[in-house]
Design a protein that fits this description.
By secondary structure, the protein is mostly helical. The two termini are about 40 Å apart. Helices cover about 50% and strands about 5% of the residues. Among the domains are: about 90 residues; about 90 residues, hpI Integrase, Chain A, CATH 1.10.443.
């Protein structure tokens, strides 16, 4: 389960600057939820060095930036990115700090290769989630997991969007979910399908009845046994077990299928369904863009590429019908 970033304390020589840095970022509208955990690790690392002055020396920072044996290139680069931002903040305040060069370390691969579940695989996954049993350390997971996985696929939510939902964000009378401060810092309204709303109504009543504490608008809609948010790693572990039960092969950590691929499957399946219904794809695309929380067409265009790659025969028919709305591959 997740920790509360507001309770984290820093103890190194630059502790006060780390706090100032996080406050500034959040004042600018950034959540910075992942960054504080990285900065806490840096703080602990600095406490074990001989650093006494308020500074980030090159030798120490390069040692910190080295790739760890158990981390991916992507994780290393995100870690470096946060420290680079902190160093720039310190330099701006006239403190000595080494700024790690942009070309430091191995480069991330941005190849877009998600796993697109078939509709049959989705049905098997949901069915397996419905059979989850309570656990001594997670007494409500049998109630929570079926709804989380339905929202991930049924609405194309990002995992952190679902885990961050509060009771006040889920209007089960109007059938609208409010995603607060999503990926691009904006709220968005998402109306789930009626059958999902009805399930959530049953879920909310059951949780209200079984909860040991009174649930308020600020309570997590999907709480852990300690009333905090579920961690993404906790959901990932359950997801891996569901894949195994369903006989869906997994390529290993970082190779997928990933939980996020449920979002990709939602988008591709929606495009296919619109085509099968004879809908005007040009008119429907803005709806998909808004529903997924993308800033513009560019973010959603990758799903047209995916459809083209996975369903070449369908793509030919769609191009004929909609005037080449599917972009050509590279």
């Amino acid at each position: 389960m997740s920790s509360n970033p507001n309770r984290i304390e820093f103890h190194s020589a630059i502790a006060s600057l780390i706090n100032q840095f996080i406050q500034e970022k959040r004042a600018c509208g950034y959540k910075y939820d992942e960054a504080w955990s990285v900065l806490k690790r840096l703080d602990s690392f600095l406490c074990n060095t001989a650093l006494k002055q308020i500074a980030l020396p090159e030798k120490i920072i390069l040692q910190w930036a080295e790739k760890q044996s158990n981390e991916t290139v992507s994780t290393q680069q995100r870690r470096i990115c946060f420290i680079r931002q902190l160093a720039r903040f310190m330099v701006r305040l006239d403190y000595p700090a080494y700024i790690i060069p942009a070309n430091f370390g191995a480069r991330r691969s941005f190849a877009f290769s998600p796993y697109i579940f078939t509709r049959k695989e989705i049905r098997k996954l949901i069915h397996a989630a419905d059979k989850i049993k309570p656990h001594p350390k997670s007494s409500m997971r049998h109630l929570i997991m079926p709804e989380i996985f339905r929202l991930l696929y049924g609405c194309g939510f990002r995992l952190n969007e679902v885990l961050s939902l509060r009771v006040g964000d889920v209007d089960l009378m109007q059938g609208v979910i409010t995603v607060r401060e999503a990926k691009f810092g904006k709220d968005r309204l998402v109306p789930p399908a009626l059958d999902i709303v009805e399930r959530l109504q049953v879920y909310a009543k059951r949780l209200e009845k079984d909860s040991l504490e009174k649930r308020t608008d600020d309570s997590f809609f999907f709480p852990s046994d300690t009333q905090t948010a579920w961690s993404s790693s906790g959901i990932y572990n359950i997801f891996r077990k569901l894949l195994l039960q369903c006989g869906i092969p997994h390529g290993g950590r970082g190779k997928g299928p990933r939980v996020h691929d449920l979002r990709h499957a939602f988008a591709v399946h929606r495009l296919i369904q619109w085509h099968e219904e004879g809908a005007d794809l040009n008119a429907k695309m803005p709806l998909l863009i808004a529903y997924l929380g993308h800033q513009d067409f560019t973010g959603t265009q990758k799903y047209l590429h995916l459809t083209a790659e996975l369903f070449p025969n369908l793509t030919a028919r769609m191009n004929k019908q909609f005037g080449g709305v599917i972009p050509k591959g590279r």
